Every structure is written in structure tokens, then in C-alpha cells.
């Protein structure tokens, strides 16, 4: 048994399916012909109606490794800063209590 891979549709192919449905008038038949779910067709159609051909382009962008590294470092530094802020807050509270006890 082989694993099914997800088919990637090019914007031109998506547009051809949309135009074919407009010509034939049957969403179900056209979707069966191309083995796509009617819900997918309607997503493509809504995107096409809203944004034109640009709406049919894939919006997935792979994150660059350098950017991923910077985001990880940023997260680590934020955690360190939060820990320092917590320590300062605890020391400040302890100092306030100590001053109150001396009075």
C-alpha cells in the first residue's frame, strides 16, 4: 500500500477548473472529473472572486533558517528577561517588608 501524496495545484489549473464549472454549470461533475472536493472548488472560487488570479497562488512560504534561529534566540532572551523581572520584583517586595518591620 502506498502513501497518498497531496497534489499541488498550479494557479492556472485552478483557474481552468473554475472556468470549466462556469461553462458546464455543474460543480459536482467537474469536481469528480478532477478528483477534488466541491468545498475546495468553492474556496478557490471565493479566493478568485476576491483577489483575482493572485488569490489562486499558494501563500505558503518556508521560513528561512536564519530567521528561525533569530526567533528562537528572541524567545530565549524574553524568558531570561522575565526571570530577571520576577527576581527584581521579589527582592523589591522583600525589601519593602523589611523596611516595614524596622519601623
Automatic annotation (TrEMBL):
Regions crossing the membrane: none
Gene3D superfamilies: Winged helix-like DNA-binding domain superfamily/Winged helix DNA-binding domain
Domain of life of the organism encoding this protein: Archaea
Example of a GO biological process term: DNA transposition
SUPFAM superfamilies: TrpR-like
Gene Ontology molecular function terms on file: sequence-specific DNA binding; transposase activity
UniProt name for this protein: Transposase
Taxonomic source organism: Candidatus Sysuiplasma superficiale
Amino acid at each position: 500500500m502506498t502513501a497518498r501524496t497531496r497534489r499541488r495545484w498550479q494557479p492556472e489549473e485552478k483557474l481552468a477548473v473554475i472556468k470549466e464549472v462556469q461553462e458546464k454549470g455543474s460543480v459536482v461533475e467537474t469536481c469528480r472529473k478532477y478528483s477534488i472536493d466541491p468545498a475546495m472548488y468553492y474556496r478557490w472560487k471565493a479566493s478568485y472572486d476576491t483577489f483575482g488570479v493572485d488569490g489562486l497562488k499558494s501563500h505558503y512560504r518556508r521560513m528561512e533558517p536564519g530567521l528561525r534561529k533569530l526567533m528562537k534566540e528572541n524567545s530565549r532572551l524574553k524568558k531570561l528577561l522575565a526571570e530577571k523581572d520576577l527576581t527584581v520584583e521579589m527582592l523589591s517586595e522583600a525589601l519593602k517588608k523589611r523596611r516595614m518591620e524596622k519601623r
